Structure formats: structure tokens, C-alpha cells
């Protein structure tokens, strides 16, 4: 494997903060797709773009209905793509949702979703990972601070930061039900983590991650430099964020679940290679290893 | 023991929602102390009163300094009044703070603290319990929903709802560092909990409570009826709340600790009897069994 490792992680006992190399956050222009110039500038600076009312009311209702059906679908019993809460065994996440649900797959193909991903990444795109997070009330666990890219690079072999995630709220996000927090601007710094990735680590890390978590000194430095932005708002809103944003969410003791649909679009020019810091790649429902461009190409495609 | 049990709990396998009996939330009048009529009316309706800048800047600085000293005070090593986080072993709470710290004791005697307690409870008061909660960052655990009165009634033998708590923020409270949540108006309903209190239960319940936690159906009903109010604001602010408020707080993955000074004032006319649902009373650092009226009596005292 000859791909150069621009972002070494899990290779030493010393954490490190490495400036983002070469990779722009936004590849496209305003003419290339749905986002306007201001949105693209904001995305480049902060690493995220929030969209009010990304879904229409009827799309939202049917997505919520689809989620409810999946949560009780007996065909998913024992399916490895379903991750449960550590203590309560309630469903925490269902992965590979674009293969499980025809409805969610159709939604993803839409220009407001796939089209924006093409615009931001400046190429055709494919789905690296998709899931719904249910995050139940009455004690849903936190997701500790992390950069998704750190995991995808280390465990899946994603070479560069040319991927973007979309989170669509399927429930209202309040200040107090564990909504997503991002450190704005943190996507410009790669936090190299300590520790070796054990074999089959994904089986436990999806419940609670330990290896590949940033050290507290780096987190404190990033938080003091960038602050913390917590995203609240009604169901149906969307949030685009860069693969390397430092983000996380607190637990949720309220009665109100915090559910979302989560899709990771990767550039077709950023296909996976061998993992940079793991004995073998994770299963394909966590990181697709086949590049299948989605949706109809638009003029957004520079290449 | 002949005291009638108006609020049975931990006695059956059925949870129940019992309307508050007889006990007013506010006993005093505006003429009796620092709070004005509007504040007393709000306290009666919502079960809480928040006070901006309860501490002066210099009081706040010296209280923060006192907390820092206590966190590293070797004399507290191994002291049973110190409760640590389950996993990290960081300090979670230090109880009996009015006996440990002369500085905090002086603060409590002030008219803004003891005087307001006398006004709300309409009698002389004594300290039922005092503590500082440190709630560290980077994963401080949640406090699940509970009514303090439920515990004090069951485990300490507090007969009636004639006690009031004061929480003083020693760090800034943000939306995202696990700040206190209350269901406004919930103090008018007593949620009777299921389960038997094991002997010596306080040793584990102070880290994470299981027995004496309300059932999810009651919590959902209260939250839907009353909503959830989360308290944010700068360090130095205070929050008075009734003994029976349904309250809790989420965990805290941010770098910013959420520390507060917490004092429970009980009316001298509400002295403890035998526990209503526990084999024996908890240690006195959790529930004082000697009535020692504090501060100088004021005209607030109706009795």
C-alpha cells in the first residue's frame, strides 16, 4: 500500500494536533448546486451548514413513520447492523439504512441531499456509510467527542478529508435532549489519537468508543479556541458537516428521544484503501468498499 | 413511630402519582424577608425562584477558590463525605460542607441565604444537608430525574414537604454542560416509587441511583404536562427550589465542569423522624438529625 499517510493516528503514545493538509473543505462553487455563496463560505469557515426545513412536512412524517417501523421490524432482530444501548439494550443505531429502507434510499438520491454533497465535494459521490440514530430518552448514552474522519482513516482506510456528512433531525432537538455539538472551525485541525486499534474493535466502539478518542488537552485547546455550538431546532432540519469536525453529544435523561438520519457522502476520488491503523477494514455496512456513484450527475461535477 | 405517612413510597410494586397534601410551598409573605411578592407567587406556582448574581464578584471568587482548595485537600482523602465518579474516580460531591468549610458556613448564615429560607418556610430553619457538586467535564455523569423529598422522606424520615434547596452556580452553566433541569410545577405531585431500599443503599445511590427513581410513565406524564426548564447563566447565580421538584441533569462531555454549592434548609417544625421506607437512617452528613437553628431570627419567623 503506497498511499501516503497525511494524518497519522493511533501510532504513538503522544497525541498531536496536525493542521489540515491540502484538502479544501469546499470544492464547488455556488453555480454548481443548491447552496449559495454565503452558505459555501460559512461551510468552509465553520465546517458545517445548517438547513432549516430540509424536509417537507410530508417527507418528515413519512420518514418518522419509517423509523418507527424499523425500530420494531422483526426482520432486524439479531442483525449485526443494529447497535443497541449498552445497558438498556434499546436500539441506538441502525446502519446501512440505504440498503435496508427503500424510502430512505429515495430521499438520499434527491438533489437537496446527493446534489449538495456533489457541490461541496466537487465530484460524483457515493455513500460511505448511512444510519439512523435513535438515541432513546430516559438515559440514552452520550457520544464522546470525536472526528469521524479519524475513525474512517484509521479503521476504514479513507485517505483524505473529502467526505461530508448530513444529519437530518427526525425529532425536535432541544437544548436538553443530547443534541449535536460541534466545535466550529475544528475541521482544520486533525487530532492524532493514541492507542492501537484492537481486532474487531467496531463491535464495542459503536456502543462506547475508547481507542481513537482525542486526548483532553487537545479537546480543551480546541474548545477554548473555537467554542462549542449546540444544534437545536425542529424535526426536519438538516446539518451538513465536514468529515473532520470535532463533534459529540451528551446523554439524554429526558423522555424525548433524539433521532436522526445520518448519511456520509464520500467523493469517488477518495475511495478507500487499506486501513491506516487497524489490522483489517471494518465491515462494509460501516464503510462501503465499492464505489457506486449515486443520483444523476449535475453540472456540479468538476471531474 | 406514630407520624402519619402522607407520601408512601417504595412500599408496593405499583408507582403512583399522589397530589401534594396540605403543605404550602411558600409559608411567608413579602414583608417577611428578601423575596418580593412576585417572586413568592412564582415560587409557589413553579416550585423555584432563580436569582441573578446572588453572590458578589468577590464572594464568587473566594467561593471558587475554596472549592479548588477542597478538591485537592489531602485531609479529605478517604473521607466518607467525599463521593467520587463511578469510572474516573474524580470527585463528584463533597457533603457536609458547612462543617468542612468555615467560609461556606459564613455564606450560608447570610440573610440572602438563611433569611430567604426562613421567609419561604415561615419558621426558623436548620441545615438538613449541604454539599458542593463538582461535576467534572469530559464525561461527568448525569443525575437521573428525582424528587429530593422522596429520598429524604424514605431514607431520612423527613415527614413533610417543608424544606427548600438552594443551588449556587460556582461555574458558568451552559446549555451543554449538564446544567440543572426542573419540570416547573412538578412539586405539586409526589411520585411514589417502587422497590425496597437496601441497607446501606446511600453508598451506591450517591454515584448512581436506581431505587427511588420515578417510573418512566410518571416522568413522561409530568414532562408532557409541565415541560422542562433548563437553567443556564453565569457563575454566582442562585436557584431556590422546593424539596419535591422533579429535577435532574444530563451528563457533561464538554471540557467545562459544572460545579455548584447546594444547601438544603429544613423547617425546625419538620424535624426528622424514623425513615418511612428504609431499615435505618442515613448518616448525619446526608441528613442532619439534630435541629440547630441557624442565623439570627428575623421577623420572617411566624413561629
UniProtKB/TrEMBL annotation, chains A, B:
Keywords: Dioxygenase, Iron, Metal-binding, Oxidoreductase
Subunit relationships: Homodimer.
The protein's required cofactors: Fe(2+)
Family per record: Belongs to the PhyH family. EctD subfamily.
Entry EC number(s): 1.14.11.55
Name this protein carries in UniProt: Ectoine hydroxylase
Coiled coil, from the record: none
InterPro entries per UniProt: EctD (IPR012774), Phytyl_CoA_dOase-like (IPR008775)
One annotated GO molecular function: 2-oxoglutarate-dependent dioxygenase activity
Amino acid at each position: 500500500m503506497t498511499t501516503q499517510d497525511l494524518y497519522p493516528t493511533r501510532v504513538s503514545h503522544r497525541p498531536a494536533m496536525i493542521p489540515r493538509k491540502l484538502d479544501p473543505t469546499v470544492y464547488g462553487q455556488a453555480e454548481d448546486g443548491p447552496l449559495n455563496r454565503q452558505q459555501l463560505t460559512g461551510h468552509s469557515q465553520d465546517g458545517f451548514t445548517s438547513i432549516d426545513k430540509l424536509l417537507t412536512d410530508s417527507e418528515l412524517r413519512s420518514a418518522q413513520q419509517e423509523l418507527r417501523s424499523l425500530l420494531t421490524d422483526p426482520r432486524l432482530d439479531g442483525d449485526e447492523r443494529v447497535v443497541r444501548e449498552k445497558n438498556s439494550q434499546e436500539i441506538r443505531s441502525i446502519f446501512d439504512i440505504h440498503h435496508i429502507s427503500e424510502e430512505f434510499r429515495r430521499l438520499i438520491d434527491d438533489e437537496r441531499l446527493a446534489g449538495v454533497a456533489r457541490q461541496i465535494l466537487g465530484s460524483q459521490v457515493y455513500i460511505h456509510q448511512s444510519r439512523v440514530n435513535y438515541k432513546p430518552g430516559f438515559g440514552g448514552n452520550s457520544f464522546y467527542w470525536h472526528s469521524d474522519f479519524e475513525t474512517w482513516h484509521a479503521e476504514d482506510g479513507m485517505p483524505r478529508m473529502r467526505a461530508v456528512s448530513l444529519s437530518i433531525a427526525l425529532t425536535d432537538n432541544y437544548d436538553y435532549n443530547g443534541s449535536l455539538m460541534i466545535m466550529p472551525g475544528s475541521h482544520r485541525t486533525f487530532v492524532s489519537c493514541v492507542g492501537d486499534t484492537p481486532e474487531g474493535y467496531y463491535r464495542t466502539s459503536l456502543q462506547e468508543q475508547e481507542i481513537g478518542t482525542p486526548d483532553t488537552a487537545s479537546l480543551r485547546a480546541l474548545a477554548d479556541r473555537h467554542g462549542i455550538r449546540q444544534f437545536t431546532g425542529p424535526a426536519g432540519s438538516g446539518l451538513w458537516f465536514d468529515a473532520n469536525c470535532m463533534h459529540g453529544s451528551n446523554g439524554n435523561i429526558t423522555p424525548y428521544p433524539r433521532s436522526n438520519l445520518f448519511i456520509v457522502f464520500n467523493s469517488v476520488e477518495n475511495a478507500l484503501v487499506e486501513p491506516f491503523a487497524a489490522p483489517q477494514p471494518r465491515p462494509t455496512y460501516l464503510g462501503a468498499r465499492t464505489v457506486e456513484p449515486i443520483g444523476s450527475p449535475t453540472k456540479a461535477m468538476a471531474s
